[in-house]
């Protein structure tokens, strides 16, 4: 997980911890008052569930992490879980090590096979000795967090491709595709679709002579255009006229410059060459995939700043050298 994404997850975990710690601590005290009577413990759990509306299961374990109660759910008791030994479950590690309250990392649940997490609160006697543990399981999709949409940092990201392709790179050379034969027309047409027909994300697959497009009017579905479509200006009649977005990250006059650079990268070398290129006008990110299967994502300004010599001569195109 990247550092920015890890930070976004950590913020959500902090919010969740703040919501759960106090009610589970109160419930643990109530459980200590009736310890170790199973029926009384289960009544405590059932009474607490309305105050934890997103909780899937509540249960009590003894000091050896063997389950003393049924799983208590909003639908009632599941007695078949009583007696289970949970010592080896990863979400109990911190509690067994002495933490009063712990919140597990997300994991895939055994039963529903969905992302979940578990909060564990130590149950202590009035003297402070550990009686057992209170467990609360949550399905991530049901947690009532107001999650902001994660936005990755707009910086150059370089990804290695298939090692088998990289290993055989110098045994291959570019084969002229249909798109190569009319590449100028194709690039002009795609620029027109972006400029006045509402295409905000376009990806050109030069080697297979096709394109995938996303439109402002229908952003949840992509359009697949083949070579015949991409060389027929009449397809503009199939899309509504839309002004170029005022909040686009890349100026319209620079879209053509990006496409000119795509053309140059396609023909820059017979061994190292561009297989596909994409542009999203809202975040201004250019995507590249080369013959070695190396991929790059970078802001349009940085992309236009690179020379062809950089891509061929530095080794950055294919990420041939091992990096951390």
Q: Your description of this structure?
A:
- Helices cover about 30% and strands about 25% of the residues.
- It contains ten helices and 14 strands.
- The strands form three sheets. Strands 8-14-13-12-9-10-11 form a seven-stranded antiparallel sheet.
- A hairpin with a 4-residue loop joins strand 13 (about 285-290) and strand 14 (about 295-300).
- Helix 6 (about 185-195) runs antiparallel to helix 8.
- About 30% of the residues are buried.
Query: What's the Cα radius of gyration?
Result: 29 Å
Uncertain stretches of 5 or more adjacent residues: 320-324
As a percent range, the share of helical residues equals: 25-40%
Question: Average pLDDT, to the nearest integer?
Answer: 86
Number of strands: 14
* End-to-end C-alpha gap: 14 Å
The general outline is elongated
> How much of the polypeptide forms β-strand, as a percent range?
25-35%
Record the strand order, biggest sheet.
Answer: 8-14-13-12-9-10-11
Q: Helical stretch count?
A: 10
Q: Determine the structural class based on helices, strands and strand pairing.
A: alpha+beta
Helices, strands, pairings?
Blueprint (H helix, E strand, L loop, with lengths): L2 H31 L4 H11 L6 E8 L8 E3 L2 E3 L14 H4 L4 E3 L3 E2 L6 E10 L5 E10 L17 E3 L3 H5 L10 H4 L1 H14 L2 E7 L4 E6 L2 E8 L1 H4 L21 H15 L7 E7 L4 E6 L4 E5 H6 L2 H6 L11
Antiparallel strand pairs: 1-7, 2-3, 4-6, 5-6, 6-7, 8-14, 9-10, 9-12, 10-11, 12-13, 13-14
Helix pairs in contact: 1-2, 6-8
